[in-house]
Amino acid sequence: MTKPLIALAALSLAVPTPAEANPAPPTTLDVTVHGALKDDEFAYAFIEGLTTEVGPRQAGTEAEARAREWAAAWLKNYRFENVAIEPFMMDTWVPGDIARSRVTGPFAQDLEVLPLGNSAATPVGGIEAEVVHFRNVDELRAAPEGSLKGKIAFISHAMSRTQDGSQYSFAGPARWVGPGIAASKGAVAAVIKSVGTDNHRNPHTGGTSFPEGVAAIPAGALSLPDAANLERMFDRAKGRPITLRLEMNPRQIGQTESGNVVGEIVGRNSLLPPVLLACHLDSWWNAPGAFDDAAGCGIIIAAARRVAESGQPLRTIRVLLAGAEEVGLFGSAAYSKAHLAEPIAVGLESDFGADRIWRFDSNFRESNPALHKKIAAAVARFGVSSGTDVAGGGADLNIVRDQKGALVDLQQDGTRYFDLHHTPDDTLDKIDIVQLRQNVAVWTQVVGILANEGTAILTGTPVPAAPAIMKSQ
Predict the structure, then answer these.
(1) Which of 16, 150, 272, 404 suits a disulfide with 462, CB 3.0-4.6 Å?
(2) Which domain holds residue 158?
(3) pTM of the entire structure?
(4) What's the pLDDT at 27?
């Protein structure tokens, strides 16, 4: 056990101070929360089962359909009520089975690459062209119109690890919009330095987009070591052209079915709006998605079940296991469209791995300070601070943003998240069981408070609608 985990375990032990000579007896929820921190296996069992029995779950495919059936059966087995699969149709992109890149001159060698979601295929046999290096998206934007005609754009960045994941906003545009900008300037293809922080030869995939009226081009992500190698080649080439051959065969297969999975812990008062807990069920094709986002689904389901063990809550707790998040938040949009007229009391999402929660934010810090302070005080014993940011909610909480409702963010430690994000390394062995239990304990504490709040909690500071691409994509 490392020192941080020893410290974390110590936080669960309530050591009376002199001012606490006669501490209040623990509540049923307190006992349940302590049990979650000490020995909760429910969340891990969900993650292990989903990643083992289903594995990778690309949106709109047969594998995602199996994941929905598996998750619905799991919820029913653990006594959730009103379990349902809510299907919707979506345009579906699949990655194909060819992804190759090779520097052909002057320093001939292969580079590891994966296609980006929504990108186009190369001709059979690939594309070979001169590469133009851009250190960041701003350099690419400044390139003259038409200057990339017949060339391959290489877009880099300098992402670093952060606890809050904020560097994703800095580096993400290389993937989110870089290939589209390159296409608009005439490029025949684009490769990016993977948006990540590891040093493995594992490219990080993810979605990209193309401006209206601009045809998709082949676009791939290079592993970080290979992208760094390509950068060195430009330094050593001394102005000589670097050429690259790229071959990939992704394709759009038209409309296929995806869907959301929902279930409930039914509350005592059906007139009160429910508490909504969200995660996403799909993953990219290249990994079983233990961190992104089987862990999130395991955490929210475990928390809902734990609250129920402490007694029937006042409000219904609804879990939403959203489909097709990675490829464009289709499940979130579909859920909001179908249920917008049904008020939600407050929404929370888990979609940033499984490492410890370190900060709590809400969007009702000002409008309902008593509730914000109550939650902050309850989670402080787990090493969770009270933040001052306005919670924006996770990617799958469109319905709450659309309703201008209350949101809670339980911020997880993202220091190693982008080592694994969208890579083949996102596997079960990366789950730290001690940190996972801390997540379940904190979620149980917070959901238990929210689900037992009586009168109007919950007017929050409105937040903007979710952007087209959010943190987890």
Answers:
(1) 404
(2) 96-249
(3) 0.92
(4) 81
